[in-house]
């Protein structure tokens, strides 16, 4: 039997996922990381999927479902939109998601969020949405409890989770308690070794392995990894 690298990795460094129930009486914030055309819509740009991708499609479906639930409850949603000024590259990636382009807009399935009163749209020009959310006066405000979904699990989602947890641990973000990463609401891109070899500065990025590593690293920083999310009274 041939054991794939992903199976081996999951055996060596398993990530235990849990069912998370969000209490109805604690306001929870949903953070959607970079669910934009440039990363998620087939053919939309240098970093967009080249063909339909199951992990990406599931991530979008789950994010839409969560967003609808949060909007019904009028709970806060923060959507990060990766947006760069022309000529300012983000090494080691090619030019992507330029300001004013279709690439830096929410995917069609989430565009309705722009009209919702509980939604804050935040454009950021760096990987880490926590850093991207710091105002000129140094303030940076989040909800009591955070649920994170989006792309890429091992890049912008992970950076945001790590910074938020470090800031929480230092007491910068009261009353924030838990940071939950919803695994099926997250996705990353696929750039196999064969393609990377043909690209200058190409960094190999096998999707299933990097998805697993992203969740593993987030858990290692203290995030809860949710395999499913429900709402209800706290037991
Ligand atoms: Zn970027």
From TrEMBL:
What are the GO MF terms of this UniProt record? nicotinamidase activity
InterPro entries registered for this protein in UniProt: Isochorismatase-like_dom (IPR000868), Isochorismatase-like_sf (IPR036380), NIC1 (IPR044717)
Alphabetized Pfam families for the sequence: Isochorismatase
| GO terms, biological process | pyridine nucleotide salvage
Q: Which Gene3D superfamilies match?
A: Isochorismatase-like
Q: Isochorismatase-like domain: which residues?
A: 29-190
Family annotation (PANTHER family): OS02G0606800 PROTEIN, PTHR47297
- Family (UniProt): Belongs to the isochorismatase family.
Name of this chain's protein: Isochorismatase-like domain-containing protein
Q: Which organism is it from?
A: Ambrosia artemisiifolia
